[in-house]
Design goal:
The chain is α/β, with parallel strands linked by helices. The protein is built from eight helices and eight strands. The protein has helices at residues 22-36, 75-83, 105-111, 140-145, 169-175, 187-197, 222-236, 239-254, and strands at residues 12-18, 40-47, 63-68, 90-94, 98-99, 116-124, 164-168, 201-212. The protein has an eight-stranded mixed beta sheet, with helices on both faces. α6 crosses α8.
Length: 256
């Protein structure tokens, strides 16, 4: 069967998953419509749990395709499902609580190198006056030392969080998308590791900024904390983690 032609006029399909969060999704859609409708072909909105439809009657400059899950699915499974609706060169995974003050999508794509498979802008967290620093490979030691004053951040990120991930469609297909064995945490590190192991690069738009209206359930909800801890154990027992860690150590040794 021939591969369907990609939609190039508007090169981005956006995937957003709502877990009873349509009140957060609505302003995000409004901002995408205001700033980035020229590059967004469609938004695939997955309703993971039943909720009142606060979007009824709203219209946008892009298509809105809605998926209503019969049963709740995990982060990776939801976005993999949405990717089946992507016929554009780029696939954007967005959290419902991301916020924009300008268009970062068009300049982000314009900056993309030929082997850039996964892009992101800098992310500003609530109450902060500077973007989040780049993230090092997750290890038990890294978690225990990241708050110390002598902790050294990497010049380029080893991975980026799943709240804003702009994938080249070719990359996402090649690596098979998210690993659905992770339910809600850990899949972002895993997919970043597998992206780089496949020869693609992570690229950050250092001059571009998006805001995160953070919803940090794992700090207060025992269920989310359990998912977080068990996901870390899955990361550390995965083949991708150990291959990526070895590759990073080899790369660091070669520049010394």
């Amino acid at each position: 069967m021939p591969t369907p032609a990609l939609s190039l006029d508007k090169p981005i399909t956006v995937s957003i998953v709502s877990h009873g969060q349509l009140a957060l999704v609505k302003p995000l859609l409004e901002q995408l419509d205001r700033f980035s409708h020229g590059v967004v072909e469609k938004v695939v909105l997955t309703i993971n749990v039943p909720e009142p439809d606060v979007l009824a009657g709203a219209t946008w400059h892009f298509a809105l395709e809605r998926i209503d899950n019969a049963a709740p699915m995990g982060f990776g499974a939801n976005h993999n499902q949405a990717f089946g609706h992507c016929d554009t060169p780029w696939f954007l995974v967005l959290n419902p609580d991301i916020r924009f003050d300008s268009d970062v999508l068009r300049p982000l794509i314009a900056q993309a190198g030929p082997r850039a498979g996964l892009l992101t802008p800098r992310i500003l967290e609530p109450g902060k006056d500077a973007p989040e620093q780049h993230r090092a490979i997750i290890t038990p030691r890294e978690i225990l030392t990241r708050k110390r004053p002598d902790y050294v951040r990497p010049v380029v990120p080893h991975w980026i969080p799943g709240l804003f991930m702009l994938f080249r469609r070719e990359t996402y297909r090649e690596i098979g998308g998210f690993d659905e064995r992770f339910f809600m945490y850990g899949e972002d590190f895993d997919i970043c590791a597998r992206t780089q192991l496949a020869g693609w690069k992570l690229q950050v738009g250092e001059d571009l900024l998006a805001r995160h209206d953070a919803q940090r359930a794992s700090r207060t909800d025992a269920k989310h904390l359990y998912w977080h801890v068990t996901s870390l154990l899955k990361v550390w027992s995965s083949r991708a983690f150990w291959r990526f860690r070895a590759a990073m150590q080899k790369s660091q040794a070669s520049v010394r």
